[in-house]
Amino acid sequence: MSPPSDRTPSPDGSTPFGDLLQQRLSRRELLAHGALLAPAALALPSVAGATRAPAAPGLVFQPIIGSREDRVQVPPGYTAEVLIGWGEPLFTGTPAIATRGLIDGDLLSTGSAAAQERQFGYNCDAIAFLPLDRSGRRGVLCVNHEYCDPRLMFPAKRQFKSPRPGWAADPRLEAVQTMMAAHGVSILEIRLENGTWRPVTDSKLSRRITARTPIEIQGPARGHALLRTAADPSGTRVLGTLANCSGGKTPWGTYLSAEENIEDYFGGYPQYRESGRGDARTLTAFARFATSERNIFGWETIDPRFDMRQEPREALRFGWIVEVDPQDARSPIRKRTALGRFCHESAASVLTRDQRAAVYMGDDTQFEYIYKFVSRDRVNLRQPESNRELLDHGVLYVARLEADGSGRWLPLVHGQGSLNAQHGFADQGEVVIRARAAADLLGATPMDRPEDIAIHPQTGRLYVALTNNGARTMDPVAMGAERPGLDRRPDAANPRPANRYGHIVEIVEAGSDAAATSFRWNVFLLAGDPQSAGGRFLTDAAAIKSQQLAATDTYFAGYPERDKISPIGSPDNLGFDPEGNLWIVTDGEQPRGANNGAFAVPVAGAQRGHLRQFMSAPIGAEVCGCEFTPDGETLFLSIQHPGEGGTLEEPRSHWPDGSGLPPRPSVIAIRRKGGGVIGS
Ligand code: FEO
Ligand code: CA
Ligand code: CA
Ligand code: CA
């Protein structure tokens, strides 16, 4: 889509971000230029009011075949370039990590953690691109960093015992602090020059948020007794953000990052629970969201706040949605407790019909739920700073999907229904801290690992990735003490037993309004190999409802030509291009043993369901991000954990540096050679 011609850029070609927000206020302009400025595109569903999806023009790229090669592959006519990778500096005066030195323990040297605090973090995941001017060639990129792989950062543990010259006096401490610094969020300015996006290392927007950056706790759980610790008796300020997986950007120009598998970061819970010294209310808070026995990175041996025997409530201060304003590198960062505490994945925002904010979220664990938050107050696009408390007041809902294709958003509001002291919820703070338990009481529908949620830019329809669930079973066994009475059998919304390859559900809000409390839903796609002889290729939606399905049965929104559909497994992150085609990136097993990749599928018209593979990732990597520039000419993807399962001594991948070097997680930018809209 081409830029609008009816506006004159400011003399220097740039426009302050606040002005850009104002410029998108006219509804006519929103519709006309929705694809120019990303948050405007987010605003479209509230004004379009469409109930029928328009026919997308279709996708005409030549699909690629799933690959096991250790490289990024894209269709003919496209290029994929590394934009920034782990260890590259965001600030001038900071060196880049030398990949070649990793095996010698470079990251165990004094100063490694301090440098990492100024370098791009590890395992990039969610990407948000916000244009900084109307040219489309300057923007701010927000990228979060989910976790670290110490085996690909530091030499084998036995080498720690024979330190080399230059190593820190306590190499383990340096390693832990370097890992902490490699978590969080990176914010950087990027520019498009001669068809290539490049980071700007001296930008005033450059920012690193790590596992130790002070963050304000906001919303109904701020100051709650369950969030008070020895280091923070007020329960209002936490150090850092962890396990940041998918996320999103808001219509008012902020970045939302989702804290997912935070249970991996704390150790000693079983001992705390069985010590007899545990506080009953704290123990109850962990009943539906227990932490692991050990911090999988050993942090509790260095920092007592990760040792639950010493600080049992620190873990309750993680598992939230984090909001940051990428326009101001000094702005406070906030955890938004009104949006609930669980294994957060996705924070897809849109305006409701009456201009309030709705945020859709998944809880990525087997048999967990889909959530939505709707703000109390309206979004003020004229004054972005006045939306500072927007995500602190509103209603958190959880989804119940009925077998007849209807659905309801059930409010998690203290004092309503059974969410009261009699049932163990003293106040709204406790409802959001124990969101899973509250959702259990309301009868929410347990799903097959809800990951990302994408909102169609024209219709407002939702697409929910259910990545897989091997524990979905025909045997009516309970799931142990943690979930008494959980029915693990397939149901209408999760119709396959042993759901190995995952599926996608399509949701239409009542009146196409994100504030609705009811919706209609249907299965959009049952992933797998459509050409597999071992499974049925279904084209009739009625067959999904009326028959008992097998794990290998597939369905692609009714598209009938099975030979034209690419096999796909484990859908994770989702995105829409400006034309309204759905893009799916994967994290997990592929039906024919190929690497993870990126796929595209129209959701309307005759090509609805015609899914084709667009990109193949290096060995061991999952693909995340899936963010388009508003003009549709660049697709940003995160290549997360390339070479997973390998070590520095025996790497499985050498991407992207090659030459036998160990892998580095990196963000890539995909473009058409010579420019043009991707996919068209
Ligand atoms: Fe971090 Fe649910 O993927
Ligand atoms: Ca992941
Ligand atoms: Ca994910
Ligand atoms: Ca995943």
Average predicted local confidence, pLDDT: 91
Taking the sheet with the most strands, its summary is: 11 strands, mixed
Contiguous low-pLDDT stretches (5 residues minimum) are 1-55
The ligands bound in this entry are: MU-OXO-diiron, calcium ion
Shape: globular
SS-based class: mainly beta
Helix content: 10-25%
Number of helices: 10
Radius of gyration: 24 Å
Number of strands: 32
Beta strand %: 25-35%
Taking the alpha carbons of the first and last residues, their distance comes to 10 Å
Structural features, described:
- The chain has 680 residues and is mainly β.
- The protein is 11% helix and 28% strand.
- Strands 13, 14, 16, 17, 18, 20, 21, 22, 23, 24 and 25 form an 11-stranded mixed β-sheet that branches. Strands 8-7-12-11-10-9 form a 6-stranded mixed β-sheet, with no helix packed on it.
- Helix 10 (541-546) links the parallel strand 24 and strand 25.
- The structure holds MU-OXO-diiron and calcium ion (3 copies).
- One calcium ion binds at residues 245-246, 345, 451, 572-573, 587, 624.
Please give a quick description of this structure.
With 680 residues, the chain is mainly beta.
